[in-house]
C-alpha cells in the first residue's frame, strides 16, 4: 500500500509538472526570440533619424557604433549603391525594401530585418540587420535546466511527503494485522493502539472490543465447564461410599482406586477450565512416564477383556508442550476408542518415539476392523491413507460422542504438532499423534 500510494503521488505530480513546465518552457523560448527581434529592430530604428540628416561620413560612423554595441551585423544601403557598416550583399529582401517595404525574413541562419527609410532626395535608404539563431535561443537552455531541476525537486519533495503520509497510514494497518495474528494465536490480551485516520481508529476500537468479547465468552464457557464438572462430584462421592461399603477388601480397593482416578480427572478438568491461558503458557511434561502410567492403567482392563498390549517406549525423556493431565487425557481418549470400537480380545500397541525436530510421536495401532472411510487401503509413504478421514468434533460414524479424536487433534495442534489417521499393517486403525517440543507453538 505504501508503494502504491507513492506511485500514485508520483504519477499525479508528473502530470501536473508536465502540464505547467512544458508550456512554460515553450513560452520562455518564444519570449527569448521576441526579445532578440525587438532588440534588433530597435538598433535599426536608431539609425532611421540619422539617415535623413547626417552626411555619409557621420552615418558610417554611427552605423559602425551601433553594430559594435549590438554585436550584430548592421548594414546601411544608400540609393547610390554605397554600403555602410558591416559589409553584406544586396539580398532579395534589401531590393524589395528599396521599393519602400520594411519586412522581416526568416532564413536558415536567422532572421533578416530590413527597414526602408524614405524622404531622401536621392531615393530610399535600406537599413539591414541579421539576428543569428544562437541569439534567438540565448538563455533558453539555462532556463530549461532551472525548470528541470525545479521539477525534479518538487517531485522528490512530493514523494517524501507522500511516503510520510503513506507510512502514517500503513503503520496502524500493520499493527492491526499483527494484533489480529496474535489473537489468532490465542493471545487474547493483545490490543491494538488506536492511531491513524478516524476510520482506522474505529477499526482498532472494534478489534479491541471483539477481543474483549472473546475473553468474556471464553470465561463464561470455562465457568460453565467447571460448574458442569463440579456437579460430577456428588455422584462420585456416592460411588466412593458404595465402594467403601463392599465386603470384599480387594474389590473395594480396586473400585476406590478407580473412583480416585476419576475424581482426579474431574479436578484437573475444573482447574484446566478455570485456567486463564494467553496461548503462550509453559505447559510441559515428560511424555514417557505419562504414557507408561496411562497404558498401565488400561492394561488391567485389557487383561480382563483378553487383549494383548504391546508398549514400545523411548529410553530417554521426551519433553513435549503439553501438561501431564492433558497428555494423560489424550492417551485415555485414544485407548478408550480402542476399547469402545473394537471387539474383545483385539490387541493393540502403543509406541512413543522422539521426533527429529523435537517433541515426541505417539502411535496407537489396533488389530480391529479399521477406521470407517479408509476402505482398508494401505498407508502411503507418510503413513496416512488418502483421502484422509475427517475429524469433526461431535460427529462419529461409530455412534459415540465424537470427541475423542478431536481432543487428541486439538492437543496436538496446541503443542505445535498434528494428528494423522491411517491403516495399520494388520488392517486396523493407526492413530499417530505428533507432539511439539516445549518451545514450539501453533494455534489450534
UniProtKB/TrEMBL annotation:
<feature type="region of interest" description="Disordered">
    <location>
        <begin position="360"/>
        <end position="387"/>
    </location>
</feature>
<protein>
    <recommendedName>
        <fullName>histidine kinase</fullName>
        <ecNumber>2.7.13.3</ecNumber>
    </recommendedName>
</protein>
<dbReference type="InterPro" id="IPR036097">
    <property type="entry name" value="HisK_dim/P_sf"/>
</dbReference>
<dbReference type="Pfam" id="PF02518">
    <property type="entry name" value="HATPase_c"/>
</dbReference>
<keyword id="KW-0808">Transferase</keyword>
<keyword id="KW-0418">Kinase</keyword>
<dbReference type="GO" id="GO:0005524">
    <property type="term" value="F:ATP binding"/>
</dbReference>
<feature type="domain" description="HAMP">
    <location>
        <begin position="167"/>
        <end position="219"/>
    </location>
</feature>
<keyword id="KW-0812">Transmembrane</keyword>
<dbReference type="InterPro" id="IPR036890">
    <property type="entry name" value="HATPase_C_sf"/>
</dbReference>
<feature type="domain" description="Histidine kinase">
    <location>
        <begin position="227"/>
        <end position="439"/>
    </location>
</feature>
<dbReference type="InterPro" id="IPR003594">
    <property type="entry name" value="HATPase_dom"/>
</dbReference>
<dbReference type="InterPro" id="IPR005467">
    <property type="entry name" value="His_kinase_dom"/>
</dbReference>
<dbReference type="InterPro" id="IPR003661">
    <property type="entry name" value="HisK_dim/P_dom"/>
</dbReference>
<dbReference type="Pfam" id="PF00512">
    <property type="entry name" value="HisKA"/>
</dbReference>
<feature type="transmembrane region" description="Helical">
    <location>
        <begin position="143"/>
        <end position="162"/>
    </location>
</feature>
<dbReference type="InterPro" id="IPR003660">
    <property type="entry name" value="HAMP_dom"/>
</dbReference>
<keyword id="KW-0472">Membrane</keyword>
<dbReference type="InterPro" id="IPR050980">
    <property type="entry name" value="2C_sensor_his_kinase"/>
</dbReference>
<keyword id="KW-1133">Transmembrane helix</keyword>
<dbReference type="Pfam" id="PF00672">
    <property type="entry name" value="HAMP"/>
</dbReference>
<keyword id="KW-0067">ATP-binding</keyword>
<keyword id="KW-0902">Two-component regulatory system</keyword>
<keyword id="KW-1003">Cell membrane</keyword>
<keyword id="KW-0597">Phosphoprotein</keyword>
<keyword id="KW-0547">Nucleotide-binding</keyword>
Amino acid at each position: 500500500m505504501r508503494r502504491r500510494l507513492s506511485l500514485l503521488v508520483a504519477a499525479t505530480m508528473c502530470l501536473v509538472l508536465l502540464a505547467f513546465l512544458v508550456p512554460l518552457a515553450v513560452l520562455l523560448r518564444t519570449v527569448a526570440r521576441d526579445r532578440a527581434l525587438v532588440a534588433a529592430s530597435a538598433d535599426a530604428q536608431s539609425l532611421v533619424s540619422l539617415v535623413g540628416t547626417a552626411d555619409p561620413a557621420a552615418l558610417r560612423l554611427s552605423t559602425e557604433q551601433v553594430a559594435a554595441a549590438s554585436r550584430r551585423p548592421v548594414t546601411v544601403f544608400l540609393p547610390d549603391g554605397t554600403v555602410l557598416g558591416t559589409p553584406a550583399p544586396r539580398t532579395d529582401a534589401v531590393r524589395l525594401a528599396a521599393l519602400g517595404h520594411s519586412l522581416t525574413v526568416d532564413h536558415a541562419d536567422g532572421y533578416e530585418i530590413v527597414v526602408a527609410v524614405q524622404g531622401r532626395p536621392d531615393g530610399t535608404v535600406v537599413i539591414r540587420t541579421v539576428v543569428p539563431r544562437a541569439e534567438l535561443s540565448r538563455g533558453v537552455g539555462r532556463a530549461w535546466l532551472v525548470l528541470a531541476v525545479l521539477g525534479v525537486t518538487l517531485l522528490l519533495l512530493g514523494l517524501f511527503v507522500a511516503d510520510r503520509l503513506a507510512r502514517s497510514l500503513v503503520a496502524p494497518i500493520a499493527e492491526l494485522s499483527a494484533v489480529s495474528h496474535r489473537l489468532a494465536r490465542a493471545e487474547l490480551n493483545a490490543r491494538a493502539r488506536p492511531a491513524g485516520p478516524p476510520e482506522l481508529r474505529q477499526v482498532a476500537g472494534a478489534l479491541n472490543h471483539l477481543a474483549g468479547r472473546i475473553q468474556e465468552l471464553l470465561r463464561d464457557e470455562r465457568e460453565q465447564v467447571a460448574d458442569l464438572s463440579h456437579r460430577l462430584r456428588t455422584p462420585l462421592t456416592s460411588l466412593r461410599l458404595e465402594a467403601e461399603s463392599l465386603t470384599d477388601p480387594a474389590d473395594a480397593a480396586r473400585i476406590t482406586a478407580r473412583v480416585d482416578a476419576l475424581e482426579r480427572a474431574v479436578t484437573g478438568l475444573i482447574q484446566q477450565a478455570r485456567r486463564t491461558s494467553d496461548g503462550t503458557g509453559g505447559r510441559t511434561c515428560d511424555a514417557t512416564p505419562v504414557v507408561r502410567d496411562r497404558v498401565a492403567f488400561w492394561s488391567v482392563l485389557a487383561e480382563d477383556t483378553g487383549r494383548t498390549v504391546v508398549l514400545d517406549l523411548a529410553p530417554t525423556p521426551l519433553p513435549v508442550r503439553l501438561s501431564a493431565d492433558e497428555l494423560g487425557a489424550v492417551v485415555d481418549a485414544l485407548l478408550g476408542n480402542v476399547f469402545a470400537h473394537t471387539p474383545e480380545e483385539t490387541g493393540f500397541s502403543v509406541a512413543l518415539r522422539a521426533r527429529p525436530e523435537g517433541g515426541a510421536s505417539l502411535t496407537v495401532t489396533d488389530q480391529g476392523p479399521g477406521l470407517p472411510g479408509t476402505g482398508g487401503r494401505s498407508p502411503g509413504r507418510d503413513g496416512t491413507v488418502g483421502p484422509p478421514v475427517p475429524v469433526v468434533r461431535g460427529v462419529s460414524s461409530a455412534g459415540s460422542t465424537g470427541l475423542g479424536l478431536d481432543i487428541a487433534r486439538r492437543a496436538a495442534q496446541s503443542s505445535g504438532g498434528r494428528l494423522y489417521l491411517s491403516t495399520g499393517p494388520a488392517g486396523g486403525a493407526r492413530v499417530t499423534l505428533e507432539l511439539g517440543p516445549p518451545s514450539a507453538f501453533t494455534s489450534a
